[in-house]
């Protein structure tokens, strides 16, 4: 197993893991150990903000796995992210207990408000952390399995697949807006109190959540890398470049696609589950098709098919978003729009892809 | 008929395919024996490529029987299942995996488990390494094994694709225009290669190049408008009046 | 001579009428004082008596009571009411009092009084000279089913000459009779038939309250027969209405998708900014209307015909710029095109938001688009009718352009075999640019129509883009007729699902069905088959 995970593990990958490890330890220390007056102190809100970036980076990693390595441009990965987020949100809602506005020990506030008497079946067991975590992974995987099984078996490819993945997340958006779905309607789930008994507002909790996110990103990276570096990844690339040729060699293309799609969806779900406690809310707008497309541009900026690039792209774009929406709110959409156009026209390999290509052509001649 | 069926590696009986009213195959029937080398000729639109599509599962016939190895009904299987049964196909336009090395291309083709799960953990064994070495030496690309396939010349890509076919070790090879874009020397070499592998494998070659077909020195089937026009030795077929009318010209 | 006679006659009439009025005033005060109380049963009785009397102010008093404008003076129980302009009127004289009345107390009504009032007002206006008022009165009786009005109804039915008014009277009478247990059986059976002919929800409600408790077997049989015929008619009507709504939604989808049928269906370009082309068309309409409002308000009805060519031009121009600057570098790379045009759509949205603000802008409807055409319960709004006609016109025009013009011929040539077309001297980049501009321009025209039924905001396009793609894919790429059929069938399916599943759930179900459908037939209803399709 260990051998499988670290097969063909190269220097760049090691640097990336090391950087994540440093980040995951250093930021919490700077936040917790230093006095607020210190120049190097990092305020708690920044810790959570960076935690959010890293959760997005995990989503980007998941997307790169299917798009960069298998050519499946999913415009609905936000749906898996949001489903994972909702599963975590439901756990956090059940933890509120009688501290809600209506002080109902079982029912979350919005259900009391809607005059519901009983907990819907979908909410059973969500007070158990382990069950919730299982759902974080299972629900997106199951959706991906069912959807992918239909889509890949009937050979929906290219833009057609993109369009139906977009419709999928759009349908879920509409569904989650409905109050009678029992997921809080358009307000979503919020006002969380604590997680595993620790106050969700406490700086220590925040710092630990950040470290866990960094850890999960590292793990996600290792798994994704192991997959693409194996023979499996080689077949994926073959499917991306010449799907029918791969089929004529006897490979069951749909099974490969399904497997990578499900793994990717599970990663996206975990990213969503990490995102929710750090942001403090999950609502149906996470299903908006625009969100999923935005995630695609993170991958494109960093470089599709590079994994590291996807993660870096997510952090860069979101950092720019935070900065621009704060200082020049009117310019964010111009900037994002220009990014979409500029990257596709002038930087098709993305930042990391372009750098790697330049590095390789400088060093080893014709292998690039 | 029954002995035809059991002795055959490929058996087509009254196969018809139509696209929007156009009959690409019209009651096509012919039989290829085990280990046989067969050349298929015919004008454009005669149904040569559609015939290969039907055999490899890319196109479903509207009616008719397609039987492999005397007993396996191919009309109900899809491409990967048919490939796993032991039918390899080389396309008209060479399709190799441009972004992978020559060696990796062959590695993908080497016979062995094809399931997604096994591919995650299995890598390569000494046996596969030997098979790749063998294929590389047959197609003479040993020196280029670390090159990306996309950087090969047209002829080299054709050879690589044939090498991938060999690595698959199929019972039946379907080869669509293997010498298009090759030099005369390469063409000769290809003819020699195909004749040498026949016997162990059955080979069906679609080709326009009549001197190449002549060099193969095998039974020839001429297709026209989706059906068999003539069948026999190259001399008898090229002497056939109707073949001359529709294909060879006077 | 004649003139003198007329004057004398006139004087005589005036004298007599004033004398009569005096007598009435005296008599009236007796009836009217019955209203000056707080006892509801007394007021109810007063209302009925007042309706039966011939007091000139009766109708006005009853209406005033219904509107809570009626009061009585505590000192002498004289009745006063405020007329519609707010002036006090003395009910006894039906004229303004000499001095402002004081010490007034309003007359109150409860539900029973209100019912009596409705019936009373209804029966009083049965005699009105205005046919519209008579019909309104008949309908009031239909609702109140006051048995006291029966004799009045009988007499007016006999006298009525207007066929439509008479029909309303008879329906009112039937409504009274059907639930009157002591009415002759034959009359009640006839009443059931009459209500069956009326055939609406109200009649159905009445018929369904005919039960064992209040009717004989024959009446019940006639009632249920009539109720069945009404149910059938109503079901048919609601199906027709749904079909109409579906057609209307389908035409909107067609409008939104038809430009896409060119850019995506024919050229294979994934233009995510297509919705923004529609939005630009809608904003062009807004600007045209603003200018017309400011400079030439009389031309307002012409604002849409003026906006159509302008919207086409604006969107086509923007489309041309996008094609020349971005898309032409991305031919053959559909996924990249998708991302780049998404970027364009974001920028266009923000540009419009900066120029016009983020809020909805008001686009007015010309006079010919307002109003409803009621066909025996089947309602057609003129606005929707125009949009359906308009979208079909645009569709046919586009079909004509593709089939009949030299641009259309060259377009089809380039689509089918780019290299061959180029070899024959067709300048394919020009054709590409013009085709894309045409598709964008058509989207702009769609925006003019959609400005009439949707909010004109920077997000207008976003709400159509997914639906448009689904329509084109569902109908079959590269086939305009497929787009038409796809749009109409999705529109109809949506409207027929809505009553069963609700609007949102209906849409979700439809999305799921389309997703499944696309997976079964990835190339739509009218798919091209054959070798050429592969890549």
Keywords:
B: 250 residues; alpha/beta; Rossmann fold; 4-stranded antiparallel sheet; 10 strands; 40% helix; C: 535 residues; mainly alpha; 3 domains; elongated
Give a written overview of the molecule.
- The complex is a heterotrimer of chains A (368), B (250) and C (535).
- Chain A has 368 residues and is an all-alpha fold.
- In chain A, a hairpin with a 2-residue loop joins strand 2 and strand 3.
- Chain A is built from 15 helices and four strands.
- In chain A, 70% of the residues lie in helices and 2% in strands.
- In chain A, helix 3 runs parallel beside helix 8 (203-229) and helix 3 packs across helix 13 (308-327).
- The longest helix of chain A is centred in the first third of the chain and has 27 residues, at 44-70.
- By secondary structure, chain B is of the alpha/beta class.
- Chain B has a single domain, classed as P-loop containing nucleotide triphosphate hydrolases (Rossmann fold), CATH 3.40.50.300.
- The mean pLDDT of chain B is 86.
- Chain B is globular, with a radius of gyration of 18 Å.
- Chain C folds into three domains: 2-112, no CATH class; 126-215; 237-357 and 383-533, no CATH class.
- Chain C has helices at residues 2-33, 40-52, 58-66, 111-125, 131-144, 150-159, 163-178, 185-198, 201-208, 217-266, 274-295, 303-325, 334-356, 382-404, 406-416, 418-423, 428-450, 462-475, 480-501, 503-520, and strands spanning 70-73, 79-82, 88-90, 104-106, 372-375, 378-381.
- In chain C, the strands form two sheets. Chain C has a four-stranded antiparallel sheet with strand order 3-2-1-4.
- Classes of the chains: A mainly alpha (368), B alpha/beta (250), C mainly alpha (535).
- Chains in contact: A-B, A-C, B-C.
- Chain A binds chain C through residues 73, 147, 150-151, 153-160, 162-164, 166-168, 170-171, 174-175, 177-178, 244, 289-290, 293, 296-297, 300, 330, 333-334, 336-345, 348, and chain C through 270, 326, 329-330, 334-340, 342-347, 349-351, 353-354, 462, 466, 469-470, 473, 504-505, 507-508, 511-512, 514-516, 518-520, 522, 534.
């Amino acid at each position: 197993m260990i051998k499988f995970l670290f097969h063909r593990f190269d220097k760049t990958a090691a640097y990336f893991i090391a950087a994540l490890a440093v980040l995951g330890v250093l930021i919490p220390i700077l936040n917790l150990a230093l006095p607020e007056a210190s120049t190097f102190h990092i305020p708690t809100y920044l810790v959570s903000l960076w935690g959010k970036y890293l959760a997005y980076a995990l989503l980007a990693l998941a997307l790169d796995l299917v798009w960069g390595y298998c050519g499946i441009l999913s415009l609905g990965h936000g749906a898996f992210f949001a489903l994972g987020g909702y599963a975590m949100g439901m756990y956090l809602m059940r933890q509120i207990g009688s501290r809600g506005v209506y002080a109902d020990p079982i029912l979350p506030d919005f259900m009391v408000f809607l005059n519901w008497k009983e907990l819907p079946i979908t909410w059973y067991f969500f007070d158990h952390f382990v069950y919730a975590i299982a759902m974080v992974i299972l629900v997106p995987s199951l959706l991906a399995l069912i959807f992918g099984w239909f889509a890949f078996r009937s050979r929906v490819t290219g833009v057609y697949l993109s369009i139906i993945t977009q419709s999928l997340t759009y349908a879920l958006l509409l569904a989650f807006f409905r109050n009678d779905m029992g997921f809080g309607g358009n307000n979503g789930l919020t006002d969380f109190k604590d997680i595993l008994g620790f106050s969700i507002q406490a700086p220590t909790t925040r710092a630990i959540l950040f470290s866990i996110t960094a850890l999960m990103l590292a793990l996600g990276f290792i798994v994704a890398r192991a997959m693409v570096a194996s023979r499996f990844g080689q077949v994926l690339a073959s499917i991306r470049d010449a799907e029918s040729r791969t089929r004529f060699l006897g490979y069951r293309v749909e099974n490969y696609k399904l497997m990578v799609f499900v793994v990717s969806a599970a990663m996206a779900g975990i990213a969503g589950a990490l995102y929710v406690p750090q942001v403090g809310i999950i609502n149906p707008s996470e299903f908006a098709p625009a969100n999923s497309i935005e995630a695609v541009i993170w991958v494109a900026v960093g470089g599709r098919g590079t994994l590291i690039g996807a993660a870096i792209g997510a952090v860069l774009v979101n950092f720019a978003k935070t900065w621009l929406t704060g200082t020049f709110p009117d310019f964010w959409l111009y900037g994002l729009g220009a990014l979409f156009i500029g990257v596709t026209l002038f930087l098709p390999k993305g930042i990391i892809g372009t750098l790697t290509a330049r590095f390789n052509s400088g060093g080893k001649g014709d292998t690039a | 008929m029954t002995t035809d069926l059991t002795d055959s590696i490929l058996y087509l009986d009254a196969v018809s395919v139509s696209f929007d009213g156009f009959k690409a195959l019209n009651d096509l029937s012919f039989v290829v024996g085990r280990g046989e080398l067969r050349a298929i000729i015919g004008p454009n639109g005669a149904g040569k490529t559609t015939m290969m599509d039907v055999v490899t599962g890319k196109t479903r016939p509207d009616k008719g029987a397609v039987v492999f190895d005397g007993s396996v009904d191919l009309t109900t299987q899809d491409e990967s299942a048919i490939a796993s049964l032991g039918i390899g196909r080389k396309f008209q336009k060479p399709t190799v995996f441009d972004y992978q090395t020559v060696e990796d291309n062959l590695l993908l083709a080497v016979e062995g488990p094809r399931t997604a799960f096994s591919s995650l953990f299995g890598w390569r064994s000494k046996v596969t390494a030997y098979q790749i070495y063998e294929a590389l030496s047959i197609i003479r690309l040993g020196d280029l094994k670390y090159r990306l396939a996309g950087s090969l010349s047209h002829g080299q890509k054709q050879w690589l694709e044939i090498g991938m076919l060999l690595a698959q070790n199929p019972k039946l090879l379907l080869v669509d225009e293997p010498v298009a874009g090759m030099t005369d020397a390469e063409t000769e070499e290809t003819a020699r290669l195909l004749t040498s592998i026949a016997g162990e494998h059955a080979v069906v070659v679609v080709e326009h190049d009549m001197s190449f077909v002549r060099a193969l020195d095998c039974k020839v089937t001429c297709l026209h408008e989706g059906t068999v026009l003539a069948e026999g030795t190259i001399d008898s077929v090229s002497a056939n009046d109707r073949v001359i009318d529709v294909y060879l010209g006077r | 001579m004649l003139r003198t006679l007329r004057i004398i006659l006139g004087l005589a009439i005036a004298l007599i009428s004033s004398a009569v009025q005096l007598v009435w005033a005296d008599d009236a005060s007796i009836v009217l004082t019955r209203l000056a109380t707080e006892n509801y049963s007394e007021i109810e009785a007063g209302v009925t008596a007042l309706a039966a009397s011939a007091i000139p102010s009766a109708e006005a008093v009853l209406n005033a009571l219904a509107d809570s404008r009626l009061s009585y003076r505590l000192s002498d129980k004289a009745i006063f009411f405020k007329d519609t302009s707010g002036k006090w009127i003395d009910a006894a004289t039906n004229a303004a009092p000499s001095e402002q009345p004081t010490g007034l107390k309003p007359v109150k009504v409860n539900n029973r009084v209100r019912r009596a009032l409705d019936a009373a007002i209804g029966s009083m206006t049965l005699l009105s000279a205005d046919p519209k008022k008579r019909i309104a009165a008949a309908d009031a009786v239909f609702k109140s089913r006051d048995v006291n009005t029966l004799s009045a109804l009988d007499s007016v039915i006999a006298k009525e000459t207007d066929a439509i008014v008479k029909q309303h009277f008879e329906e009112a009478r039937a409504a009274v009779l059907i639930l009157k247990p002591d009415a002759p059986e034959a009359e009640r059976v006839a009443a059931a038939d009459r209500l069956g002919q009326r055939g609406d929800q109200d009649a159905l409600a009445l018929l369904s309250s005919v039960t064992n408790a209040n009717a004989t077997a024959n009446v019940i049989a006639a009632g249920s027969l009539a109720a069945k015929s009404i149910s059938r008619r109503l079901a048919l009507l609601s199906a027709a209405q749904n079909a109409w709504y579906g057609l209307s939604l389908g035409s909107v989808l067609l409008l939104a998708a038809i430009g896409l049928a060119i850019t995506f269906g024919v050229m294979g370009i994934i233009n995510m900014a297509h919705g923004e082309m529609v939005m630009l068309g809608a904003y062009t309409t807004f600007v045209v209307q603003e200018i017309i409002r400011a400079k030439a308000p009389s031309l307002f009805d012409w604002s849409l015909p003026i906006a159509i060519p302008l919207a086409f031009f604006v969107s086509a121009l923007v489309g041309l710029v996008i094609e020349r600057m971005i898309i032409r570098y991305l031919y053959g790379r559909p996924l990249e095109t998708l991302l780049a045009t998404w970027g364009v759509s974001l920028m266009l949205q923000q540009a419009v938001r900066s120029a016009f603000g983020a809020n909805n802008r008001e686009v007015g409807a010309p006079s010919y688009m307002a109003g409803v055409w009621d066909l025996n319960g089947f309602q057609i709004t003129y606005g929707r009718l125009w949009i359906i006609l308009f979208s079909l016109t645009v569709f046919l025009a586009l079909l004509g352009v593709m089939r009949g013009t030299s641009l259309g011929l060259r377009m089809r040539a380039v689509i089918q075999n780019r290299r061959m077309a180029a070899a024959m001297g067709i300048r394919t980049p020009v054709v590409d640019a013009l085709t894309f501009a045409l598709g964008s321009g058509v989207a702009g025209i769609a925006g003019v129509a959609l400005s009439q039924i949707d909010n004109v905001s920077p997000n207008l396009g976003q709400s159509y883009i997914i639906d448009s793609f689904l329509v084109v894919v569902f109908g079959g790429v590269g086939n305009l007729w497929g787009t038409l059929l796809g749009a109409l069938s999705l529109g109809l399916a949506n409207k027929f699902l809505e009553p069963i599943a609700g609007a949102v759930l209906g849409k979700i179900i439809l999305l799921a069905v389309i997703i499944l459908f696309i997976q079964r037939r990835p190339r739509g209803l009218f798919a091209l088959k054959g070798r050429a399709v592969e890549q």
